[in-house]
Amino acid sequence: TAITITEQPVSVSVPVGYSFTLRCRAQGRSSLQYQWFCQYQSDCRLIPGATNQDLPIIAEQTQLYTCRVNDLHRNAVFSDWVKVEVHQCVARGLPPRLWQGEPVIVLNPQEQRVEVGQPLQLQCAAMGVPAPSYQWYRNGNLLEQQKRKKLRITHTRVSDSGTYLCCASNSHGEHWSSAVDVHIGWCSFGKVQAPWGASSGLVLCKIALLVGNNRYQHHPNLMAPVRDVFELRHLLEHLGFQVVSLLD
């Protein structure tokens, strides 16, 4: 209670080489001193000479930052940890000197084809000052739980198919990623090979349904269908089919 931080630093997402300033403001009962720290991976260290309220930075690599504020009575508090995310590759036609911090998409999600039950991951990334927040949509409907750069579904269902896109927003505005189609199916996806050697680009879904009847109302029970279905199932699975086999 002796020291109150009145302005916390904020996370940013910027292109490499971009110059900006992290700010921290505090109030106390006596004069205050500031000291900035940074953390890269698991290494946390004091930044020599960084003893002002403002910390000028030229973006080189993604790091975390915090500021310690102390008074003459050995009271001390730390600001929030903030992330400075640095993008090595940025969108073309974006002169940093003209950029006002509005969200700019630098990584769009890609079309996915996934088997039912397998994991799905889509990724979007944007620059922004402050760092953008993210919200994913499917078929125009908001996905309440998907609020990070990476959309993850651990076990997909057919109902997860659809058109996905992501909105990145901050106090300067919002920007939308490109829309991509996600296909969830019961079988492996692949390319159909045309006879002349060119790929037709179609999706090949190989499913076999085997039905063996042993019992007939006006005929003695048969012995072969069980064995035939068993052997045909293994043969078709070896050829890449997903097999559903039924008896009687």
From TrEMBL:
Pfam families named among the record's database cross-references: Ig_3, Peptidase_C14
SUPFAM superfamilies named among the record's database cross-references: Caspase-like, Immunoglobulin
Stretches assigned to the Ig-like domain: 3-79, 103-183
Gene Ontology MF terms: cysteine-type endopeptidase activity
Organism lineage string: Eukaryota, Metazoa, Chordata, Craniata, Vertebrata
Name the UniProt record assigns to this protein: MALT1 protein
Keyword Disulfide bond recorded: yes
Span of domain Caspase family p20: 206-248
GO BP of this protein: proteolysis
Swiss-Prot/TrEMBL keywords: Disulfide bond, Immunoglobulin domain
Coiled coil location: none
Organism, as annotated: Setophaga kirtlandii
